[in-house]
């Protein structure tokens, strides 16, 4: 086999796979980086330039008016009006103009001929000199357009505003209160059910497996209202309030159980049969086999489902609004952001800070468990019991 053929058979496919992974990673990383950088920028800069210019400064056009003719003085060359146009430290004028159609007609420090013997010079530091051989007339100053370069400005004020004034901090706690139990409960129940369906013999096991597979494709929207009516009916019978965290925990558990059982059952059924049989020969009960052997070996599958369930519950809005309502005491993070879009839709610095607060927890969970994700998903795909 020639070197070219060998490279074609091994090198090119691997290079293509690595390149595709790199492209996907960049496509996923760039928006996240953009949200993070934007959330730290000053509100005046975020509206005039993209996040990729955050470290090089932002240029914006400003309309200002020079001092009125009453401030003019006379020197050897005629009459002059002097002053400064910048009010912030670090700002630099790069160009100026006197017409809105050409706001950057003249570079900074260049003397512009405005006609009728009038000249204007605007320096980079914002100082200016308006000169004329004869006295200036009128009671209003000359309008000038400036292209101002402002230095990079980063601040944590956006996060302080969001967490304190906008109620996102309370919603963040509410989302954790909903998400953590709604992730742990279905995992615990599904792990027991998956072991029973994989290694315990009982009548109707095949039918139960088929029912679990069928429930995976049941649309959430179709079952949400019947489940809510059932829950309200039971709550009214027992005298339990309808808008409680227990209700949404049960709802997310019900919606997540079919996928959890299916995923864990496939993984547990693929465990070595000899280990299970040896434990039974040694006198171990099913509970002992499950807790001491199956659970430790099934951690990749448990982590895989935990990622899916956590992200699903954390990003959920529909189930939260149905089972918890929209009052501030129970409003979750997605609901708070939805309300924020209506009230502060033009304040990009507030929206980006809120968005990054929303994704920071899922990012932490994903990166903490991602090494188990593919292994847990694929381990039961080629073997089954």
Structural description of this entry:
There is one protein chain. The model is unreliable at 380-385 (pLDDT under 50). The two termini are 42 Å apart. By secondary structure, this protein is an alpha+beta fold. The strands form two sheets. The protein has a five-stranded antiparallel sheet with strand order 2-3-8-7-6, with no helix packed on it. It folds into three domains: 3-53; 58-150, no CATH class; 158-378, MetI-like fold (Orthogonal Bundle), CATH 1.10.3720. It contains 13 helices and nine strands. It has helices at 3-39, 43-46, 157-165, 168-199, 205-216, 220-238, 245-269, 273-281, 286-297, 299-314, 318-324, 333-343, 348-378, and strands at residues 58-65, 73-75, 78-84, 92-97, 106-107, 111-115, 118-122, 127-132, 143-150.
Give the SSE layout.
Layout: H1 3-39, H2 43-46, E1 58-65, E2 73-75, E3 78-84, E4 92-97, E5 106-107, E6 111-115, E7 118-122, E8 127-132, E9 143-150, H3 157-165, H4 168-199, H5 205-216, H6 220-238, H7 245-269, H8 273-281, H9 286-297, H10 299-314, H11 318-324, H12 333-343, H13 348-378
Antiparallel strand pairs: 1-9, 2-3, 3-8, 4-5, 4-9, 6-7, 7-8
Helix pairs in contact: 1-13, 3-13, 4-7, 4-10, 4-12, 5-7, 7-10, 7-11, 10-13, 12-13
